[in-house]
Amino acid sequence: MFEIGQIYNRKQQIHDVYGGQRQGGISTPAAAPFVFLFTGDTGEQYGYKDGWDASGVFLYTGEGQVRDMEFIRGNAAIRDHAANGKDLLVFRSLGKGRGYRYLGTFACASWELRRAPDRNGAERKVIVFHLVQAGEPSPDVAPQSEPEESSLEALRAKAYAAARPQRPEDRKKAKTNYYTRSADVASYVLARSGGICESCNRPAPFARRDETAYLEPHHIRRLSDGGPDDPRWVGAICPNCHREIHHGQNGAHKNAALEQLIGKKEEDMG
What we know:
Blueprint: E1 7-8, H1 10-18, E2 26-27, E3 34-39, E4 51-52, E5 58-61, H2 73-79, E6 87-93, E7 100-117, E8 123-133, H3 152-162, H4 174-193, E9 216-219, E10 234-237, H5 239-247, H6 251-269
Parallel strand pairs: 3-6
Antiparallel strand pairs: 1-7, 2-3, 4-5, 5-8, 6-7, 7-8, 9-10
Helix pairs in contact: 3-4, 5-6
């Protein structure tokens, strides 16, 4: 619905259409599967600046003008966006009255705490989120070390832990950790399916070279199929169902049915 590089009027083309808070940097429209993030140069007066680092991670500073930043409201919405089945849509201000350029869809890989002055000049803790852009070619990463005989319960616990971004020891590893966590979620979801498409309930169409069933992870609520997500919002489906959900006339209905089925599965597993 937004095109990368295009400029949008925040009031008319974003909030009038999708809702959400019209002021501030983080907007959380209740009925939409995404969170709007607005960035610009205003933070420079407080000693920090949003933007890309050398590793290709977008650094985004949380909200809160005085005292220590906390994981509440918008900051919690960024950290927990995967658990809530929501994407992060980032826009950069071009200056007063000049609109916002859409940078793309992102996911929160991790976060860190920094020291910086607040609006009154008092030093405080600032949350800086590490965002990875969706659509980038993902490296071929394996799940974190887990023996092949791992139980479904162990894989599930690892997947849920992977869905929640953490404070890393080294920010330079944020992107690598992001894709490793993605592999952990995919491993559990594929194991949960037992080789049966969770949409059409038919066996996988063929086996991989390692003899495992070929099914594809599908993000039920998000706009992109990539990156870590809460297992409640990911289905393991056959290529035919996957393409139909994204491009077919009956895609929305199939996706809604899949969401209900996966929700029931995860609820039953406790």
